Amino acid sequence: MRISQLAERTGVPVHTLKYYLREGVLQPGTPTSRTSADYGEEHVERVRLVRALVEHGGVPVAGVRTIVEALEAPPPSRHELLGTAHCTLAGPGGDEGPGEVVADLLEGLGWRVWADGPFAAALGRAVEAARAAGAPLSEDVLRRYAEAMRAVAEVDLDLALAAGSPAEAMHRVVVGTVMVDPVLLALRRVAQEAASAERA
Question: Where are the alpha helices (DSSP H) in the chain?
């Protein structure tokens, strides 16, 4: 298909597709002449991925480029692949650690995580902000939330590990993280409604 057909298939304007090509997040098509190229289904999938990351995930183009590079040359282990996806999605982080509350929580859970990584730090900031606003986040409540999220994480990993290739696993992790987070938030609201109805 020509680039205009690729634009029609994906709903992304031609000028945006050309920008993706210039930035290296969309692989070039097969040249058919000096000024045109042919694009296939792999380009449709790539455009959908890039669009999801940029428009829904808020990932900058430089971050998308890192993800694309990892898709084309995946790390040797699925754990490193997950780390690449997560670090890219986290964006630049500060130098602060997770804070005492989160550090104690992680140690108490026995989780082997990057304690000074961007997600632990983000969790620390979120807990502090929630507590400052009056949310009743005791150590016990945080542990219960953490255990519930561990079950969610196991589902995520099952999906990633079931992928046929490292590139497909990377795709599932990235798209799953960006696009499933809103689903999880909505499911939480529905579950609250169900639990409340059962207790009423």
Answer: 3-10, 14-23, 41-51, 61-72, 78-90, 100-109, 118-132, 139-161, 166-199
86 touches 177 (CB < 8 A): yes
Q: Taking the model in full, what pTM does it have?
A: 0.74
Whether residue 36 contacts residue 44, with contact meaning beta carbons closer than 8 Å, is answered with no
Q: Please report how many Cα atoms fall inside a 13 Å half-sphere around the Cα of residue 164, on the Cβ side.
A: 0
Contact 67, 50 (CB under 8 A): no
Enumerate the domain spans of the chain: 57-90+136-199
Q: How far apart are CA 68 and CA 191, in angstroms?
A: 36
At 14-57, the pLDDT tens digits run: 999 999 999 999 999 999 988 889 999 999 989 988 988 888 77
pLDDT digit string, tens, across residues 48-106? 889 888 887 788 888 888 888 877 777 777 777 777 777 777 666 556 778 889 999 99
Half-sphere exposure of 85 toward its Cβ, with a 13 Å CA cutoff?
26
Token code pair at residue 186: 């909505």
